[in-house]
Design goal:
By secondary structure, the chain is an alpha+beta fold. The chain is built from 17 helices and twelve strands. The longest helix has 54 residues.
Amino acid sequence: MELTVYRQSSKVRPDGTIVYKGEDALPYADGQLLIVADGLGGAAAIRHTSIDSRLFDEETLPDTLFSGVFEDYSDPGFLGYVKKSFFELYAVKDCYTDNVNNIKKSGYFASRIVSAIVLHEFTYNKKLAAGSFFGALGRERDAAKKAKAVADVGEYFTRTIAEKLRACANNANIIYESSYSGLSLLGTTLTAALYQETGSETEVLLLTAGDSRPYVWDEKDGLRQLVRDEERPDGGMTNYIQLSDESSFTINSRYMKFRNPCVLFCASDGCFDSGSFLSPLAFEKLLLDTAAASDSPEDMSANLHDFFVDHGRHDDSSTIAMKLCGYANFDELRRAASRRLKAIENDYISQMPKLLENDFIGDFERSKTNAPDEAALLRDELKCSPAVRAFCEETVKPEAEKSASGDERIAKAAELRSSARADLTELASGLGSKETEISSGSLDKLEAALGSVRSSDSEYDELRRSIFAEALKNAADKYWSSNADTIINEIKSGAGSYPAEMVSEVKTAAESISSAIKNLGSNAELQQALFDKYSDKYSALMRGED
């Protein structure tokens, strides 16, 4: 069972054309291979204006890119993936240069071409087929030779990608444009996993460059990141695929083996590097919550896509390629996810219910420079308090009524209502005359006039309620903003005369915030301890621990 997730931000042009803005390549997953590539939108933000026009047609695109690069590229699966992976380009065929935002960046082309190169190698190079590669590796008894065989694959892909990426770029006129000095040509990350299930285990060969990540998950150890991000503390990457003459790159290769059942997947940073996740634990919990609430791999894919639509705005794309290894069916994964969720609740969430929601660590660090403003926190907390809200609204009610009654919209509605009533009265008077013959048409007019009165009455009443509610809200907000500190201090000192429920809510909120500020350090310490506890297993494989 495999699944992919592909979320991209987009915009709709006035003519209805959808312009997709992400640089991630279409994720790939089949019975032996997973591929995720994230084109660099910043470091490789060259906008290519002079590409070969044949790239805008899915039928001519493969030949445009691969002629003279590959001897054979006719495999239906390979061609189907390549054609589909450039669908965003076809959409802007007729408006590509109309707007700078329609012009694709270098990272866009890089991620898609590199994914195609990797897929082509694993499709056509028989030595790299999962059965052949893992079979040969398993027959090798010498540890040093086995390690060299794995390293050789990384070196092979380093050479192959550099050579064929440049050849494809030359074919399609994807060139360095001088106006983008200092940016990388065709920059992208890569995470690919060749795998083979062998009963109780899954063997994996990882190919990585940059900060997209391969992961494994199992019920016992939870989520684990398999290789370290290749980036500096400031977030800049130390290694990624590119064609800049002054720089080089390395495709890292690593062999690993995991017990079944497990979940193997690759993900771009649009998935895990989110403000929604204070810790990798939160990313694992998202995956488990989604699996437990889904009915199939397709359902899980759709649900993850929807989550990243709402919570992935920090990045243009969120991409996952996933394999469920050793599970007889999706229900087995659902049950395993539910059991793991219970363990997370017991081991982590129960120790600090707001563990994954409140950034106690960040708040404490910020408090060292700027002490928390207790008064401001209280004002914000109590602004939505039901009792405080009711008190403020009751206090400013006369002011709100006066403001609403003078609104021009109400005056106009009143005029329309009076006019409708006058029309009805006039019509009814005419029908009441002895000389007037009452016909069905006259009755219809009377009924229509009566309907107009009812409608204008309803509209008038609704408008009065709406405008009064708006005026009341604005007046109450203004009153609280001006008087909050005085009210809070009087209640805390026992002065003034306020409703008992309001006094209780103010005192409770004041005690809670005061306690939270005092406990900020201890909360941060507990949160850090729980995150560190989780990180021990999460980071073990990155440290080379089995």
